[in-house]
Amino acid sequence: MDQFDHKLEELLKDNKWVVAIVVIILAPLLEEPIFRLHLDLKISSIWWGIGLSVLMLSEVWWPVALIWVYLFFLTYRVSKGNPPNLKYVIWISSALFALVHMGNFSDFDYGQYFYWVPFMVGAQFVVGLVLSYIRLNHGMKWAMIFHGVYNAVLIIPAVYFYEG
Predict the structure, then answer these.
(1) Which of 60, 45, 143, 156 is closest to 94 using CA atoms?
(2) Contact at 8 Å (CB) between 34 and 52?
(3) Is the four-CA dihedral 105, 150, 99, 112 of positive or negative sign?
(4) Using a CB cutoff of 8 Å and minimum separation of 24, what contacts does 22-27 make?
(5) Residues pairing with 6 in the sheet
(6) Which tens digit of pLDDT belongs to each residue from 106-145?
(7) For the range 71-78, what are the long-range contacts, defined as Cβ-Cβ under 8 Å and sequence gap of 24 or more?
(8) Which pLDDT score, from 0 to 100, does residue 153 have?
(9) Residue 145: phi, psi to the nearest 5?
(10) pTM of the full predicted structure?
């Protein structure tokens, strides 16, 4: 997997501690409401996810488009009084959380290397499931805190030991 460039390397060259702050604080504050607030299956929570997801638009736009399709479908089902099974909502949300992290890789050729995608974002899928459990059993605040601590454990050594 070394053949795929991770955008983090580019960002660490000039902005080590800015990257750390973004990853530890801003990412959980943005990603948790988008991917886990709606697990309560309330229309207002779903709309928060739709609105905040606009901030995630980048050159890798297709995961955000998938998030919109999913959240609008969820809005429709909930508004009709027929929400999908929560297990499916959790699995789909975690899969979308993982896919949005494909944006971490630059110049990835999806056509040629599609089979690498599960390996590249598998950890984010599992973390998405864990964060869903935390959100449902302990609340959004604890999901955000766990997300930030998880990211800190990964990014602080990268920032501290990076020699670019």
Answers:
(1) 143
(2) yes
(3) positive
(4) 23/151, 23/152, 23/154, 23/155, 24/148, 24/151, 24/152, 24/155, 24/156, 25/148, 27/147, 27/148, 27/151
(5) 105
(6) 677 778 877 888 888 899 999 999 999 999 999 999 999 9
(7) 71/38, 71/46, 74/38, 74/41, 74/46, 75/43, 75/46, 75/47, 75/50, 78/41, 78/42, 78/43, 78/46
(8) 94
(9) -65, -45
(10) 0.87
pLDDT at 115: 83
3-state secondary structure of 139: coil
Can you read off the two tokens belonging to residue 134?
């935390």
- Mean pLDDT, each 10-residue run in order, the chain (164 residues): 52 76 94 98 98 86 92 98 98 95 74 81 95 98 98 87 68
Residue located via tokens 């805190």: 145
In this prediction, residue 12 carries a pLDDT of: 63
Measured over the CA atoms of residue 131, residue 135, residue 136 and residue 138, the dihedral's sign is positive
E-only strand ranges, the chain: 5-6, 105-106
Distance CA 83, CA 41 (A): 7
